[in-house]
Write a structure and sequence with these properties.
alpha/beta; nine-stranded parallel sheet
């Protein structure tokens, strides 16, 4: 059982839902990433999604695009991402870390080398936004061979066939993109999410996390009522980008505590 699977199993036994924050590696400052990860884990984050900076983050809205631009400008690449995970692991062996990003940095790094180095650094799962399941079964098999979970996106427009295909190869959890659009876009319709989750569960046996458009505790609680996990990215990144260096970890932890309290209420 992977660290992600063990985390979801423990939460299910406790009757609780997973809180999964997303932050971009190296943003808002290169040296704040690991302290921020540690602070969020201490505050109640169950899994941490760590964004791999990329110059053309096509699925992301302006908030996370700005974060990626700042990180790229600061020289943060995939090697630094893995080094930050390894540093995090020296203090935290329990909280799963998922790398979320795009195919280009992984392919430039070398796919097989990436998988081996990700395992060695302490990564638990990988979500590549622009790797559709039908084109990356070999990549998913490489991940699973190293006991890493391949995680996939589903959207409101996903067909039954796509759900079934993802259900066959995904592990850890699947990430349901609750909005048609980019990260941080639009207004989340929780009723539509509640209608979609049972359709996904007919094809997918792994836990279902929901993200895109969750910006506050009330919305997080409503989504948690119908899913296994809540993923929050844009609102958190937006809060962090205006903080001075010494306040980043504290701000992230406070936000996580507020969402965690709402999920556990």
């Amino acid at each position: 059982m992977s660290r992600i699977q063990a985390t979801f199993a423990r939460l299910a036994a406790e009757g609780r839902k997973a809180l999964i924050p997303f932050v971009t590696t190296g943003d808002p400052f290169p040296e704040t990433t690991v302290p921020l990860m540690l602070a969020m884990a201490e505050a109640g984050a169950d899994v941490i999604e760590l964004g791999v900076p990329f110059s053309d983050p096509m699925a992301d809205g302006p908030v996370i695009q700005r974060a990626a631009e700042r990180a790229v400008k600061a020289g943060i690449g995939l090697a630094r991402v893995l080094a930050d995970v390894a540093e995090f692991r020296r203090s935290n062996q329990a909280t799963p870390v998922v790398l979320m990003g795009y195919a280009n940095p992984i392919e430039r790094y070398g796919i097989e080398r990436f998988v081996l180095d990700a395992k060695a650094s302490g990564v638990d799962g990988v979500l590549v936004v622009d790797y559709p399941p039908e084109e990356c079964e070999a990549f998913a098999a490489l991940l699973k061979a190293q006991e890493l979970d391949p995680i996939f996106l589903l959207a409101p427009t996903s067909s039954e066939a796509r759900m079934q295909r993802i259900g066959q190869i995904a592990s850890g959890y699947v990430y349901y993109v609750s909005l048609k659009g980019v990260t941080g876009a639009g207004h989340l319709n929780t009723a539509a999410v509640a209608e979609m989750i049972p359709r996904i569960r007919r094809h997918v046996s792994t836990p279902v996390g929901v993200g895109f458009g969750i910006r506050d505790a009330a919305t997080a609680r409503a989504v948690a009522d119908v899913s296994d996990a809540v993923v929050i990215g844009s609102r958190l990144v937006e809060l962090l980008e205006v903080q001075p260096r010494d306040n980043v970890a504290q701000t992230g932890a406070q936000f996580i505590r507020e969402i965690r309290a709402a999920l556990d209420a």
